[in-house]
Amino acid sequence: MNNDLDIITFEVITARLDGIVREMENAVFRTGYSTIVRESHDFSCGLLDARGRLVARGSHPGHMGGLPVSIDGLFEFYEEGDFQEGDAYLASHPYYSGCPHANDMVVMTPIFAGSQLIAFAASIGHTPDTGGVSPGTRNSSAHDLFGEGLIIPPVRFMRNYQLIRDTETFIRGNSRVPSMMVGDLVAKAGVCHTIGEARLKELADIYGLPAIFSQFQMNGEKTTYRIQEQIKIWPDGVSAVEAWVDDPATDEQIRLHVAAYKKGSNLILDFSKTGNQSMAPINLRPAFIEGLARNAVIRLTDRYIPLNWGVGNVVKCLFSKGSLVDPVFPGPVGFYSKTLALVESVIGAVMAKASGNRALAHIATQSSIVVGYEGERNRQYVQYELMYAGSPGWDGGDGFTGIGSRASYAKLTSCEVIESEFPVEMLRFEVIPDTAGDGKFRGGPGYIREYQVHSKSRLSGGAARRRAAGVEGGENGSNAFVVINPGTEKEERYPGIVSNIALFPGDVFRIETGGGGGVFSPSERSTERIENDIEDGILSAEKAKKLYKFTSIIDE
Prior knowledge:
- The protein is of the alpha+beta class.
- Among the domains are: 7-224, no CATH class; 358-525, no CATH class.
- It has helices spanning 7-31, 35-38, 61-77, 165-172, 178-207, 209-231, 286-300, 337-355, 415-421, 527-535, 541-548, 552-555, and strands spanning 43-49, 54-56, 88-91, 104-113, 116-126, 155-159, 162-163, 237-247, 252-263, 266-270, 315-318, 367-374, 380-387, 424-431, 447-453, 457-462, 481-484, 492-494, 497-503, 508-512.
- The strands form four sheets. It has a seven-stranded antiparallel sheet, with helices on both faces.
- Helix 1 packs antiparallel against helix 5 (178-207), helix 5 (178-207) crosses helix 6 and helix 7 (286-300) runs parallel beside helix 8 (337-355).
- The chain is globular.
- It starts with 6 loop residues before the first helix and ends with a helix.
């Protein structure tokens, strides 16, 4: 192990690097144009060394798997000699970057000390609209990547800290909300230059480049060692978990399988028995899965271990080309997040088995909505929201609502922001009774967000058509739905992903998110937990009486 730095200097530089990334993210949260960035926080930053290895992480574990792959993609199109100080490079192509779909865009800026390339600052996040047939670029009928809006292989976006007009013009010409899109990209590039680059150079001036390079190496090596020491404790062996993904293209199911091979101090997650990729846009590229797998090991062992390049030395993922989780070009990936929650579920379940930890049920699939509005003088609005649903029950506690997926630490957009920025009124935001997967420890319940639109618009979004699985006798959570004009003769109810549903002033639409799976038989649930669920509106009196034979509160 490299030990060129004394421990105090090492820890000070480590803390400074982490602080740089946090400062970068906080700046974008304050300056981003779109609600998906500044309110939902579907965005993160990172610092990478000159080889593209992650040395300081941001908030989004999936993105941390995507950033190194993005630098790899950059080097497929450019050589090191092409880079200059003040450059910014942009990519959204899922097969030439770590972006999971073309709605996500990564900005990468090279950092120099004199003429020497020393690192990269990078920022990745969702953009509200990149063209295509649906507002927000959500096309549930896409059968290849070309049906999913603008696709950008790595391209120079700035030179000498200034936007390249040709690139900017091309981007503006392919978005319904060009100012918002370019504004977000400039914010991302801005923090890479004014914070990432500037702070790292300050650090190098104080401690010298050799110290910075030593920290990059030592931190990864220390992480490798710490993860290995934790995994050694796990029993050697093979564990496996599988689930099934509904394929909108065929109405059949695709197998999702993962096996965990643990031997000594190393762990392999093998997804190679997963079924073939879909013609529907539910495929998922490997980079995000690798980020989730590495983060899951940290969460199961020592949460203070940094998520950097050293984790990948220990935790390996294997995939089969042409599968649902390693599609080949031009396989569509626009609604990848509907598969992501299930992948996260099987990763959590198989690692719980492999480590000897307590049983963990499955997560409810994330819901999302994209609404494109037509305003006065043809002004376009794009409302984009992520809605995390029921988290899983586990052997020791119930799931929560609204935080189901840990793949992204994104947040709900507040009702006040939605109503102040878009021509829409929120009518309901509440928990849905009887949606949690029942069990000794239930899953998190789903919830309703219901809106009335005030201008002509088109709706896309939804969730995967699946119920989060219970384990060890626990029951499944509820499915998610998109409902148009609920409770009227015009009601339409959709259990999967949808796009381009026409809405008119006065129309109402509702998102019903799914519930997380339960753990162990409902017959083992305590009276106190049942009473609390009835009082909190999570469990109806009718279901309590039927399922649990529970009557004390009901009869009072």
